[in-house]
């Protein structure tokens, strides 16, 4: 295996590199050991943690039980344990939260709100099979309606669009009820797209893809499939995070897409992020993005997260997610309630390739939105190819939070064609807040509908106002962090304030 030049590291940086390898292998060993532990021991650990959480402030009591799925795999399911800890929230809200928490597919999630999905299979030109979903109600899609295509971000899948406890805080449901024909996309490698015509799932060849393959195959092939199925001439593309970068890259190298997309709405957009808040990872980036391969192999990135999500007591799992997001991105997540995190964080992670993350590290290091560059080459003077974003001739609407550490809006505006690009800042919002924040209807989706020529329906506005005002209280009383989170805030959130 090629090992990058390490001489650029100082003597003080070497201990951090060594610690990173140790932590990675410790995490791997713990995952292996946990995977072979019998269910009674796992349940004992879960129940012990649950009892500890009962003594924290504003605990959420969840009953855990082990069930055997249709595939004979034992899974831990949760149900809300009736308590007087949160009398201001309804029993129905808790039950919906636990139902979303336990849902194993987007179909189950949509059915909780009275909708359904129709799965369609797209075969890409390079042999991957992608599952995309079409929103239905009473078995019917809005055929003939204006077509909307929503695409998720890095380490995600289509489920991220439908995790909100308030039905009309889920963008696909708002759009469907307004008469749009709504489609949800999935990248190769995530839980809905793990099939190739020739490559086996556990092979390096299957996971040998980056943003380039999303742009060259997944996005254009999905768009062509949707347009062929609906017989529409154009569609509106709505992306979140990496889903926006994929659209920009795809349109820039597939000029025909300019005639197939009427506009791109980019929520928490990404092309050349500022970088990571973690000093440790910053050092790795300065040495070589290829360290990612040394740490995580050349296949799937951190598959053990799925295991931890299944066996770890959800409030503890959410705390670890919050800690990780802070250490990596300086996100404090104060706009997402504790109840909402339980249903959303359970669907936050989905698999992707290590190469995709290495590609992002190359972009961050170079401050250039470029194609993946094989730096294993021994030739000097070879430079990566930049995505020709100025070739885009589609109206672009950028929706970004002013507290989002991943968005370098000035660099992005310089990269995108000024003639077609408009920006809208969302005050006091971070990256994930634009999907799951308690005020997402008022400050994010209202803009999305405005770009589409609509305003938020009065019935939704009225309900949103009630939800907004109620959530202000909920964030104080319900989403108040437990003892672990409080300790976290005292030490690493010195500037954080709560609503």
UniProtKB/TrEMBL annotation:
Keyword Electron transport applies: no
Major subcellular location class: membrane
Keywords, comma-separated and alphabetical: Hydrolase, Lipid degradation, Lipid metabolism, Membrane, Transmembrane, Transmembrane helix
Pfam families in UniProt: Abhydro_lipase
Subcellular location: Membrane
Domain of life: Eukaryota
GO process annotations (BP): lipid catabolic process; sterol metabolic process
Any one of the GO CC terms: lipid droplet
GO molecular-function terms, A-Z: sterol ester esterase activity
Domain Partial AB-hydrolase lipase, chain residue ranges per copy: 106-164
Spans traversing the lipid bilayer: 12-37
Topological relation to the membrane, as annotated: Single-pass membrane protein
Descriptive protein name: Alpha/beta-hydrolase
Organism: Hyphopichia burtonii NRRL Y-1933
Lineage: Eukaryota, Fungi, Dikarya, Ascomycota, Saccharomycotina
